[in-house]
Amino acid sequence: MAGNELRPMQYPVGIDPAALGEVERRVSPDEAPPLPPNARLAWIGKAVPRANGHAKVTGSALFTVDRKLPGMLHARLLRSPWPHARVLSLDLDAAARYPGVRAALPIHETVGRAVPLPPPGTSPSTPPARQVLYVGDIVAGVAAATPSAAEAALRLVHVEYQPLPFVADIEGARSGDAPHVFDGPVAGDSHAGGAGGDVPIAQQGNVRGPDRSGSRGNVREGFAQAEIVVEGEFRTQVQTHCCLETHAVVADWEADQLTVYMSTQYTVGVRDELARVFGLPLSRVRVVVDAMGGGFGSKSGAGNYVRAAVALSRQAKAPVRLVLDRREEQLDSGNRPATVQRVRVGARRDGSLSAVSVDSYGTAGVGIGAGVGNFAQSIYSCANFAIAQSDVFINAGPGSAMRGPGNTPGAFAFEQIIDELAERLAIDPLALRDRIDPSAVRRAERRIGAAHSGWSRRHAPGSDAGPVKRGRGVAQSFWGANVQTNSACEVRILRDGSVELLSSVQDIGTGIGTVLAQVVAEELGLRPGDIVVRIGDTDFPAGPPSYGSMTTASITPPARNASHQVLGKLFDAVASALGAAPENLVAVAGRIATADKSRSMSFREAATHLRTERISAVASRSDDYGGFARRFGDLASARNALGGVQFAEVSVDVHTGSVHVERIVAVHDCGRPMNPRQIESQVQGGVLMGLSYALYEERVLDRNTGHVLNADLEYYKIGRSRDVPEIEVIFLENYQGMSATDAYGIAEPANIATAPAIANAVYNAIGVRVRELPMTPAKILSALGRIPQRSGGQ
Amino acid sequence: MTGTITRRDFLKATGAAMTGVAVPAAGLCAAPGEAGQGAGRAGNGSGLLAISLNVNGAERRIEIEAQMTLAEVLRGPLDMTGTKVGCDRGACSACTVWVDRVPVASCMMLAVDVGERKVVTIEGLARGEELHPVQAAFIAHDAMQCGFCTPGLVMSCAALVESKPNPSIEEIKDAISGHLCRCGSYPHVFAAAMDAAKTLKG
Predict the structure, then answer these.
(1) Chain-chain contact of B182 with A689 (C-beta, under 8 angstroms)
(2) Do both B184 and B111 map to the same domain?
(3) Are B112 and B142 in the same domain?
(4) Distance (Å) from the C-alpha of residue B77 to the closest C-alpha of chain A?
(5) How many helices (H) and strands (E) does chain B have?
(6) Do A326 and B86 touch (CB under 8 A)?
(7) Mind telling me how many Å the CA of B115 is from chain A's nearest CA?
(8) ipTM for the complex?
């Protein structure tokens, strides 16, 4: 590539395809040239069928649970039946002697939970006696030749527990005389993804907090200026991820290499984690995932079960398969924390906000991070904002990030308060948002959604006659447009004209492999089916994670730049044969041609001119051309966050309390849309997960025993086919001139707005606000005063 | 997990009891496969049960542990991993296969109970290279995301459109009401099933 001087280039900008503007960016010569709007492209922005669709509909897609290695053993984990106990003794002898058993180990891994800080004066060399902290906490593991032998051996493990006092409900845990989940102060990462993470925070008993970071201005003055104040207390439940493929791993420890096949959202992250934990160089650890049966945040790291499988494989000197059963999955693979939020908003008569305060506590079980994210902090203009968030520890499995962590429960509360404020001000909820929402993209989304949803037909709250009352509601999304700059891929052209893309990025089900094929095909003038996409393997250049709605934004620009760079090498190789300078060649419709199209040859023929068997280029994610808003190491946030507005139409039967969602109009943006059909799939999925969160899902923890009463898919209720409303998905093309593809994410914004949109529609239907999730018939009837108020949930 | 007896544990235990004691004995040898073929059983020589299963038109003779479900036998000894197990309790329908053309949850049926009936799995739905119309429509409508529930959904939708030429959207919703798709691909599944029904009708 020629010198490194930045060159000025013109990029399309805007959200109206008919009236796009241009912006100049100074970019490196290694960057592919500006990409025209989707309407002028062959593959990007087109509904290209999913590349692995054939494999998925014929059953040949290879999931981790389908992996079979020669000599593979089957592992099972022994889990605590007690919510809190001291492990006095653990005897594995009988299990180890059981026929077929090849390894039996105590397992004491504590990833995902808060970490006790050593009391002053104690020696760190004397580890405290082992305690189990929740039902399902891992105690031991065995690996045997067959699943049934492993299961049988597990029953021979003898554990002597000394049960300890426990607490399994959030209100009980806050009281002064509650048993302590941890003996002293704790710290640790915010695995649940909300706020309240790894910063020094005061702790009293089971309550760690409040964390006030993110506050600004002076709310006291702000509320003093307010002409109207609205406030309310909102409660959200524990939601579990319920990935259809439970957490699964096949760990293969060999003398000079650890290979881990794993259902994971981040191959490179797991590789780094395992290398650190087992004292191996990165070059000796390989993590592989092909098809992956869902993650939703719960498969971001290696976790305890993978450590267990690796340890068992090391001891057995054989590959070990460990697949959690559904009960284990529901108890101990993460969950969305429960929250209790007191929200207060002060406004002037014109709708402008003078003060916002959020006081929240939540529980991620024995984990940290049951916060409510940055929704209330960031979505609307308000100079004075105060937040106080606390974690409350209970004896339950640790929370973890789940689709829109923090912001999903946060939006449920805050978008209802905004709805209430609009009513108190007698302003349409859309007009109020026009006043307070600085996002021009969401403003356009409100207009489009209002037209498509029939917003003008919205009536006064509770004004339908008869027992079945209809209502309409709206709510908005806010989520950072995240990018991981440590994201790379390689594009190769082989001498026979075949093309490969390689990256460790994994396809969680969003179809990133298909999108990458589109990007490469667009640049090389080929068809997506011509591109062999090899991903999900840390032997390839390190790609981004599949979480945080950052995958497409992180990996498509390097894919395009690597394609551009390798194509330049191909041009160099064929220039003389075509009698033109390399810079005067183009790749289009399967041919390499001179710019005036007077001479050309097929791509395949061009490849025969290569001097070597293959050529390749590796590119990594450049910074956004317009710069980032923030960055922390490898992670960055784009200048403009992601939007999204959803409109819900519901009917509520005030005799039975049942809520039926009839229609959702979801208007979203993700920069340049790469594959509209796959985006539609993701938005529908986000809406349905939000609908299910709004109406059905709730982990039920028995405060008297500490046991989860619905650790299954029968009594953990999830919306299914009969609950699916009509869903209209509309998305903008939002060009910003920020990268070689200008693409951003969609997964999380699609989920965040749904529950509050439904809640606001329920209010509009019945004229009474339901401030607690899930909005079950009992809660509807209770809100209507038809049955007595029950006490708060867990 | 141990300590809780479910309906299925009971069913499996009963199945095992019909043929002996479900405790593997000494002399067990490692064998590849999800449910290895080397498990012995106390009380009689081999400890394994020889059965014959008609799967995708082929007669397959295999040795299994007596308590194994159809899903376990398909995925283990028969090495057909297209059938997925999501809950192992009949609550998610990911494991749906046809038994005499009726969709059943293969995790809820003991392999020994299949008898002479004909099993069709996701691997046997296409005719050679030619996809079943439901499979083709699933691709065309992007009726999947992670794809783990897809084989089961395809089997239920295929059974529906083969038995009902003009299914309404309500009939499609009913036919797949036992399936759980956590990615939420239902709207595209409905469209795919409608489309496939039209194709089949010609």
Answers:
(1) yes
(2) no
(3) no
(4) 12
(5) 6, 5
(6) yes
(7) 23
(8) 0.96
